[in-house]
Design goal:
The strands form three sheets. A five-stranded antiparallel sheet has the order 2-1-5-4-3. 61% of the residues lie in helices and 11% in strands. It is of the alpha+beta class. Keywords: Kinase, Membrane, Transferase, Transmembrane, Transmembrane helix.
Length: 711
């Protein structure tokens, strides 16, 4: 184990090296003083010079001499001056009120060291007095170190992210200086003396401080703009409170220890118990935290709100998503309430008849809101003026713009209600937010009104967008419903046309047994079509895939033609009906053919026939429907034929061709059309042949097209 003498020698060399390092740093900084602000440069030069002088005195005379203590005080004052100069670069010492008083208090406490030095000179022969002076001196240095660390914390944490690089190394150096002092004097106070080892190691710490300052100087500096946040100020105030509490506790415990004996021990235990209970009861209080935030905003900052933090919190609240997230209306209330620290809130929205009704609650289940929260004739006041109502002023009889007549009596009688914030979107009232009273009562000022007005407009846009989306969704549902009904009416119209034709022919051929037999078949088929139509209603708009099977297309066209042809009256001619096995849904294919044939008959002159034929074309079977009617233009085919709800027929729905094409596509087929105005039209239904199913599946599989189910 090393002797105290060896530690003393080590400390002398360490302090001598530290003095040399700081003197070199002073000379280098003096050479660069013209390139930076004069105040900061002078403060740095003074701090480096006095630190080097103090280290040199300690190396020459020892650590506990009066000269060393005096130079240590000068060194501390120089570092405090440097911290103040760094605050003053952007006016921080004037914009934040506590900086000057805190700095003045620390300088005053440090200056008391000179008084203690004079007392030490006068009472140097009294050991008890010297011990008391030593403890008081150490306590003062602890207080200065604690306060200085809080200032360094504020200096660095309050700077913008890109500016912290310039502050980083200087702040680390100052934190090292006072951090070492805090630990050294804490142990010295508890041990009633300075440990020789820590005194010697203090020289090495000063060398490290000089190295940190050199690194910071080499990296360069930038113009700093201090931008403290509320969180930093709150934490710093908490550190000050904790530091003060620690000093009071140490002082009280030491005072009680002077009583001696069992009484002193009991007093110490009682004091610790009482103070601990008070701390546990007071610190978690939301009212206390709210009071501290109000005091910070009132005395520390030029503006009440940290707008960046408020906007980020506002965005997070509104943008919250998920199954467990509150509804948008509740989040709107919370977003406004968080700004003013309100404990609860309500959202009133306009009903269809114009009155305001309750739309959402946030942490306010006891509010008694009538069914008609605000009458319809009172809404225009908030819509035209956008006035934020301070309900406490209204209760006190203060009226600014005639708001007394617009605010309902139940809100005036609800003493928990604090303010009424209108939400305006393009001069239209979307809602009203009723804010509950915050835990710490205060009066609304101009900054509250400005921020609430802007936030209200933003929230109104969210509510308007939400209402628009809900209206679009409802409209799309009605559109789908109408589309289904249009398809149903179109199919019923076709069946009605067949039954009308049947009834007209029955008047002429009722006595013909063959006609009666054919009429029964037609009636049975019509009934089957109506039942099939009912079964298909749920598939409209659902994009359901049709189940296809191997059927003969020639049988389908003969069946369709038979429905339109009566004895003695041939309307539809089958010109070619060679067997053609295709993959299709027979019921759907018949429905498509009925659509197309009926359209062809409607487009043809009276007495002109419609021709059907069935052919095999490569991999596909083709069914053609040919008429000699008026025909269609190329522009009509390209832009209007397959567009739903566009029709050239009187009373037509305009969905026959569109529905036919969609049905054919569902069966992996194509619907093509050729037409000439004045000559007629040709519709071609192309469906895959059953024999080529495997080849078509392989081709579509290679191209990524999904296949259909085959029975």
């Amino acid at each position: 184990m090393q002797s105290p003498l060896s530690w003393t020698g080590f400390g002398q060399w360490a302090f001598l090296a530290a003095a040399f390092a700081f003197l070199l740093l002073t000379g280098w900084r003096w050479d660069r003083r013209r390139s930076e602000q004069a105040g900061a440069a002078r403060a740095e030069i003074a701090a480096f010079t006095l630190t080097g002088a103090w280290a040199l005195v300690v190396a020459g005379t020892g650590y506990e001499t009066l000269a060393s203590q005096a130079f240590e005080t000068l060194r501390s004052l120089a570092w405090l001056s440097l911290a103040f100069a760094m605050f003053s670069r952007d006016g921080r010492h004037t914009s934040v009120a506590p900086i000057r008083p805190v700095m003045a208090a620390l300088v005053f406490v440090e200056m008391l060291q000179f008084l203690l030095l004079m007392m030490n000179l006068q009472y140097g022969g009294n050991a008890v007095t010297q011990a008391m002076i030593f403890q008081i001196s150490v306590l003062f240095r602890l207080l200065v170190a604690t306060g200085a660390l809080v200032l360094v914390h504020n200096l660095y944490a309050g700077a913008m992210a890109q500016q912290r690089v310039a502050l980083r190394w200087t702040c680390i150096a100052m934190a090292t200086v006072w951090g070492y002092d805090l630990n050294l004097y804490t142990i010295a106070y508890l041990a009633h003396g300075l440990p020789v080892e820590l005194e010697a190691m203090r020289g090495l710490a000063q060398i490290g401080v000089a190295g940190l300052l050199t690194i910071g100087a080499v990296r360069g500096r930038s113009a700093l703009r201090f931008s403290p946040s509320r969180a930093v100020a709150f934490q710093s105030l908490s550190l000050l409170v904790i530091g003060a509490y620690m000093i009071v506790m140490v002082g009280a415990a030491q005072s009680l220890a002077w009583l001696g004996g069992n009484a002193g021990q009991l007093a110490q235990l009682g004091f610790v118990f009482v103070t601990s209970v008070l701390v546990l009861a007071i610190l978690p209080s939301g009212r206390l935290r709210g009071w501290i935030k109000v005091m910070l905003a009132k005395h520390f900052f030029q503006h009440r709100y940290d707008y960046r933090a408020e906007w980020l919190r506002f965005t997070r609240t509104i943008g919250r998503a998920g199954t467990h997230a509150p509804s948008l209306h509740e989040r709107v209330v919370q977003a406004v309430a968080d700004i003013t620290d309100s404990s609860a809130g309500l959202l009133l929205c306009q009903a269809e008849s114009g009155e305001m009704v309750l739309s959402a609650r946030w942490q306010w289940p006891t509010a008694d809101v009538p069914a008609e929260a605000i009458a319809a004739d009172k809404v225009s006041f908030f819509e035209k003026r956008g006035f934020i109502v301070d309900l406490d002023e209204l209760r006190a009889g203060v009226e600014h713009q005639g708001e007394r007549s617009a605010v309902p009596q139940w809100l005036v009688e609800e003493h928990s209600a604090w303010a009424l914030v209108p939400l305006l979107h393009f001069d239209r009232l979307v809602g009203l937010v009723v804010l509950g009273r915050p835990s710490v009562a205060r009066k609304l000022d101009w900054e509250d009104f400005d921020l609430l007005r802007v936030v209200g407009m933003q929230l109104a846009s969210y509510l308007a967008e939400h209402a628009g989306q809900s209206a679009l969704l409802e409209a799309s549902r009605f559109e789908e419903f109408n589309r289904r009904m249009a398809f149903v009416m179109h199919d019923i119209k076709n069946l009605a046309s067949q039954l009308s034709l049947l009834s007209r022919n029955a008047e002429k051929h009722a006595e013909n047994p063959a006609f009666r037999a054919d009429m029964l078949i037609t009636l049975r088929n019509s009934a089957d079509k109506l039942n099939a139509l009912l079964a298909r209603l749920s598939r409209y708009g659902g994009n359901a895939a049709e189940r296809v099977e191997d059927i003969d297309a020639s049988e389908v066209i003969r069946t369709v033609a038979g429905r339109y042809n009566a004895p003695g009256m041939l309307q539809v001619h089958v010109t070619h009906d060679a067997p053609c096995r295709v993959l299709a849904n027979r019921e759907v294919l018949e429905q498509v053919m009925l659509h197309l044939v009926q359209n062809a008959i409607d487009a043809s002159p009276e007495g002109m026939a419609v021709f059907l034929q069935c052919n095999v074309d490569g991999l596909y079977g083709t069914i053609e429907i040919i008429d000699t009617g008026c025909g269609m233009s190329a522009e009509f085919i390209r832009n209007r034929l397959f567009r739903p709800f566009v029709s050239t027929k009187q009373g037509g729905f305009g969905i026959g061709a569109y529905e036919a094409r969609e049905m054919v596509r569902a069966m992996r087929g194509k619907l093509e059309v050729e037409s000439r105005e004045g000559l007629g039209s040709r519709f071609m239904v192309r469906l895959p042949l059953a024999a080529t199913q495997g080849l078509i599946d392989s081709i579509e599989g290679d191209s990524g097209s999904p296949g259909k189910k085959v029975a």
